[in-house]
Amino acid sequence: MSPEDPRTARTKARLRESLLAECADRPLAEVSVSAVVRRAGVGRATFYLHYDDLPALAVDACADVVHAAVDALHAWQTGPGSRAPVRPPEALAAFFAGAAGHAPLYRTLLLPGGAGPLGDRLHLELRARAHAERTAVGAPHSDLVASAVAAAFTGVLADWLHGHIPATPPELADQVWSLLLALHRAV
C-alpha cells in the first residue's frame, strides 16, 4: 500500500480535529457537515471526497482510541513470551481516563455491549493482536482466547462508557486486567 499523499493526510487530520471539536460542544447527531467543514476550513466537496458521511469521519477520528486501547493492554510487554504482571499497566488506567474525555462521541459509535462501528473496529484489532501474540508463543486455543479477550474488553469498555459499570478509570483498569488474565489462563 502506498503512503497517503501529504495534502490528503493534512486535510483528513483537519476534518478529524474539527469533528472532535464540534463533538466537544454537542452530540454527533447534532453536528452537521457544514459545521465540520467550516471549522476545518475546507469545502463541502472536499469532505465528500474523503468521507461518505459524518459517522465515517467519526470512526476515522476515533481510530486513535482503538490503537490506544490495544497499546494500553499490551504496554507491559517487553518482548515475546513476557509474563503478564499481576497489576495492570499504568497505560490502561490512562487509556480509560482519556476515553472518558470523549465519552459522548464514543457512546454514539460504541453501543452497549460493544456493537457499533467503533466496537467492530476495536474488536477486530484486539482480536488480531491477541491471536498473533498467542500464536507467536505457542499458546493453545489462540482463536478462542483472542475472540474472548476482544469481546470482553470491547463490551466492558462500551458498558462503562454508557454508565452500566460504575468504576473510576483505575478501578476499571484493575477489574478488566483481572478478567483478561483469567481469560488467557482459562485454556
Concise description?
The protein is mainly alpha-helical. The protein has helices at 6-25, 33-40, 44-50, 54-61, 63-73, 90-101, 103-109, 117-136, 142-161, 169-185. It is built from ten helices and no strands.
Offer a few descriptive terms.
187 residues; mainly alpha
C-alpha end-to-end distance = 37 Å
Assign an overall shape: globular
Give the helix proportion (percent range).
Answer: 55-70%
Largest sheet: none
What structural category do the secondary elements indicate? mainly alpha
Query: Strand tally, please?
Result: 0
Q: Give the ordered list of helices and strands.
A: HHHHHHHHHH
Q: On the 0-100 scale, what is the average pLDDT?
A: 91
Rounded to the nearest angstrom, the radius of gyration is: 18 Å
Helix count equals 10
Low-confidence stretches: none
Amount of beta strand: under 5%
Structure description:
It is a single chain. The protein is mainly alpha-helical and 187 residues long. 70% of the residues lie in helices and 0% in strands. The protein contains ten helices and no strands. The model has no long low-confidence stretch (mean pLDDT 91).
